[in-house]
Design brief:
- It is a single chain.
- With 411 residues, this protein is an alpha+beta fold.
- It folds into 3 domains: 91 residues, Rossmann fold (3-Layer(aba) Sandwich), CATH 3.40.50.20; 74 residues, Dna Ligase, domain 1 (2-Layer Sandwich), CATH 3.30.1490.20; 205 residues, D-amino Acid Aminotransferase, Chain A, domain 1, CATH 3.30.470.20.
- It is built from 12 helices and 19 strands.
- The strands form 4 sheets. The chain has an 8-stranded antiparallel beta sheet with strand order 13-12-9-10-11-14-18-16, with helices on both faces. It has a 4-stranded parallel beta sheet with strand order 3-2-1-4. Strands 5-8-6-7 form a 4-stranded antiparallel beta sheet, with helices on both faces.
- β9 and β10 form a beta hairpin.
- α3 packs antiparallel against α4, α4 packs across α5 and α6 crosses α7.
- The longest helix is centred in the middle third of the chain and has 18 residues.
- The relative contact order is 0.11.
Length: 411
């Protein structure tokens, strides 16, 4: 018998492991020592506990395991694991995305500088600079106008995004940056919040292109409509396909391909966020992975394409490339679950939602006894509920009705 291929999975969840197993590969799953979730080894899966953010530690472990039996691919579908997986690709000479390209996605300032240097067709340059001190905030506002956006260069999930509305708000923004840098939020340990970037404010509706790249051929599976909470810039709702005109969608698809070419990205999933403006779509940021908020489930429901499984099977040579965009069948939407801060006392309505035929997925991260933080960012959400419908509007309506049935009681 032909031996199974071998995959290094860096970080991630039990869902990621399940998707990786569908490729048929034997898996070495490297996880942080304190990472929660299932950790027991199962057939074809070896679990290694180590700090994969430490380059030396990861390199030593990957090299030793590769010498014993070579890896065919190294993949991560979680933001903190993207750069480490790319380093393994470089170290072991694997065919996946290397660190130079991967880090252009995980470092927002590096992305902006790279786009300025490449001047890709259709990719609008957005003014940006690093925050140095309070005075740098005032200088940026004077040069590029108010409002402008401040956010961590290496953050995610809208954590730490600030809108500076005028010169009189720069001092408060500087103080907030200091607070965020010393934040005790339980998820900040996985991200570097030392650097913050200032960006020209781009007004317009938000959407994202969910793409898979096959040896440089970029297929936009769908354009996602995002619903954003104005108070903290958190994306509370997502729906596919986006309710935009064919002409606007064609612009998003065209600019997405140009952007990914400019970034040097050739293989794998990506989630690229845009603001839709009268001058065309403007890239806000991008991640070299499948987007969160159950977007993978939404796409599988509407398009029959599982990008998470593709992310593992494609680098292993176990998948055929999509040649063109799939056609949608209906619509699908997800919504962020939130509730009042406090200790969770009881959860009601979950079983009824799971039993609904239009429920696409539920990922609830809390149970009785868990503590709910104030809703300052997407990291403070409690999970998502996703529903399908006859079209996008119907899917959003069904999702909101399910959300109304879910009660998370705190005290």
């Amino acid at each position: 018998m032909t031996p199974a291929k071998r995959l290094l999975l860096v970080g991630g969840s039990a869902t990621h492991l399940s998707k990786a197993r569908a490729s048929g590969a034997d898996i070495v799953w490297i996880r942080m020592p304190d990472e929660v979730g299932p950790a027991d080894a199962e057939r074809g899966v070896e679990v290694v506990r180590a700090d994969y953010a430490d380059e030396e530690t990861l390199g030593r472990l990957a090299s030793k395991a590769h010498a014993e039996r070579p890896f065919d691919a190294a993949v991560s579908l979680t933001e903190p694991g993207l750069d480490p997986a790319a380093r393994v690709n470089d170290l072991l000479g694997l065919t996946g995305t290397g660190y130079e390209v991967a880090h252009r996605f995980t470092d927002k300032y590096l992305m902006r500088r790279h786009l300025e240097e490449t001047a890709a067709p259709g990719v609008r340059i957005v003014a940006s600079a690093l925050v140095e001190d309070h005075e740098s905030l005032r200088r940026f506002g004077a040069a590029h106008g108010y409002p402008f956006i401040v956010k961590p260069t290496c953050g995610t999930a809208s954590f730490g995004v600030l809108k500076v509305d005028g010169e009189d708000r720069t001092e408060a923004a500087w103080q907030e940056i200091g607070r965020l840098r010393s934040s005790d939020h339980p998820l900040v340990h996985a991200y570097d919040l030392g650097e913050f970037i200032m960006e020209e404010y781009i007004d317009g509706p938000l959407c994202s292109a969910e793409t898979f790249s096959f040896a440089g051929h970029h297929v936009v599976v769908t354009v996602t409509e995002a619903i954003t909470e104005d108070s903290n810039h958190v994306h509370v709702g997502h729906a596919v396909p986006a309710r935009i005109s064919p002409a606007v969608e064609a612009d998003v698809v065209r600019v997405t391909a140009s952007f990914l070419d400019a970034m040097g990205y050739r293989d794998g999933a990506s989630h690229t966020e845009f603001k839709l403006t009268p001058r065309g779509p403007v890239v806000i940021e991008s991640q070299a992975r499948v987007g969160g908020a159950l977007l993978g489930d939404l796409m599988e429901s509407v398009y029959g394409v599982d990008l998470q499984e593709l992310a593992f099977s494609w680098p292993l040579g176990e998948a055929q490339a999509l040649r063109e965009r799939p056609e949608p069948r209906g619509g699908s939407a997800s919504w962020l679950v939130v509730t009042e801060p406090g200790k969770v006392r009881e959860i009601r309505g979950l079983e009824a939602i799971l039993a609904k035929p239009d429920t696409v997925g539920v990922d609830l991260w809390v149970g009785p006894g868990d503590v709910v933080r104030p809703f300052d960012g997407q990291w403070d959400g409690l999970g998502h509920v996703a529903s399908s419908g006859d079209d996008t509007t119907d899917a959003i309506d069904r999702c909101r009705r399910s959300m109304a049935e879910l009660q998370i009681l705190t005290e």
